[in-house]
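Workshop exercise sheet. Pairs work together: one partner reads the sequence aloud, the other fills in the structure field after running the prediction. Swap roles for the next sheet.
Pair: D.N. / O.F.
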Amino acid sequence: MIRKYIIPLLAIAGLAAGVLAVKRSTHHYRSVPPAAQPAENPYTDAIAASGIVEPASRSIAVSPFTNGVVSHVYVVWNQHVLKGQKLFQLDTRLADAQVAMARAGVLAARAQLEQAEATVAKLESPPRAVDRLAFAAAVQAAEATYTNDKERWHRIQPAIGTHAISADDVANRRFAWLTAKAQLARAKANLAQFNAGTWSRDIAIGKTQVRAAQATVALNEAQLKQALVNLDLLTVRAPINGTILRINIRPGQFVAAASVENITDNPQAAALILGNIRHLNVRLQIDQEDASRFDPAAPARCFVRGMTQVPIALTFVRIEPFVIPKQNLTGAPTEQVETRVLQVVYRMSQPPFPVYVGQQVDAFIQAGKLIHGTTKSMR
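Structure field:
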């Protein structure tokens, strides 16, 4: 009786209770539309690509030539600057001192050059009559002194050996006569040298000193030029006409000269970033699997993220024919990240809404068909 009726009834009751519990615990959720509709492909057969909005000049990361402390920042965000306009400046006190030292070195070198040139000019000029008179007068003076000292020496000859004159007086008169004799010989030699004129080797030595002084002047002027260049490099100027997109420095902040690798990996390493945003470009990344189907002449459209209902026409600018690892990721779950892409640059037509550098876009390019190994545009 129990097996035949009670156990089946209990099983049926348990099954009913389980179905009822499952039904009560199940919630029906309404489907919620996405916040923004994804971009729709406007072409029958297209190449899809993701991209980044960039200036027509690309984003130029500006950094100083050398390390230093920022003393002035002359620009603000979104300011339009002209080529050569000051952007910021590092502390110039040390460079100013180096320029002053270099200027003083140039002045000293030029003075030495003038002195060497004057010496050569003097050597090459004919002797002056007044100089000849001076040398002759020196000879006459030396002869008078020699005659006087000679007579004084001869006057004491009879008294030598007696006690009338001391030995010291004898020695003094003798040495005075010998000294006067030597001075007379020197005066006559100077007069003879003057009459003979300048020695050719003296002129050659003087000209060599002039050339050495000229080389010293050139060296010091080059050092001054180098110091001025180093001073000028502390003031960083705009390389192109453009707009300030980002400023990462402040007065009083230490800034380092950033390498290209550091700036590429970390834009914050640049002191500031500027670019020509009069026209905006889009840098698209096309998967290498689709690169062979890409036709530069094919029409293309892009959609800015968040404004996917408004297509923007694109005009082909260039291909960068070097396939690189994929860098800009869309975040889609089906996206391949370990792939290589071909970078293609398009110019955006003027959009009816603000578009900013760095925004992501989704683009579609009408694909070409492969015919006997070549790509034919579908137009």
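Discussion prompt: Helices lie at 2-25, 93-124, 129-155, 167-196, 200-233, 260-265. What would you look at next?
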